[in-house]
Design a protein that fits this description.
The chain is about 35% helix and about 10% strand. It has about 100 residues and is an alpha+beta fold. The N and C termini lie far apart (about 30 Å). One of its GO terms (molecular function) is RNA polymerase II complex binding.
Length: about 100
């Protein structure tokens, strides 16, 4: 049975500008980004969440079992609109991380 996001909650979702994961602002604040928290440091920082995530994204895929899912292996990335702040981009570059990340066409 498909799991659909309630309409009211889905309007409040945000996407990480580095890895594209989609969560609520509350989830970013409580847990940070599950993929790149060490780099993005959003946990507990509303200002950082605002700067490093966007509400402007197109497309999403929910995966229950990524190890067995062919969708998880072949899915296209979410399309995002926005850019991380210049100071965050410089932090990433100093760690050898290229921004924006290379995304499939």
């Amino acid at each position: 049975m498909p799991c659909l996001e309630p309409q009211a909650r889905s309007k409040k979702l945000r996407a990480c500008l580095l890895c594209s994961i989609i969560q609520t602002p509350i989830d970013f604040r409580r847990n940070g980004c599950p993929n790149c928290e060490e780099i993005m440091q959003m946990k507990g920082s509303p200002d950082r969440i605002q700067a490093c995530t966007t509400t402007h994204f197109d497309g999403s895929v929910a995966v229950v079992d990524p190890e067995k899912s062919w969708v998880a292996r072949w899915q296209e990335q979410v399309r995002l609109k926005g850019r991380i702040p210049e100071d965050v981009e410089q932090e990433l570059e100093s760690q050898g991380i290229k921004y924006p990340p290379t995304r499939p066409n």
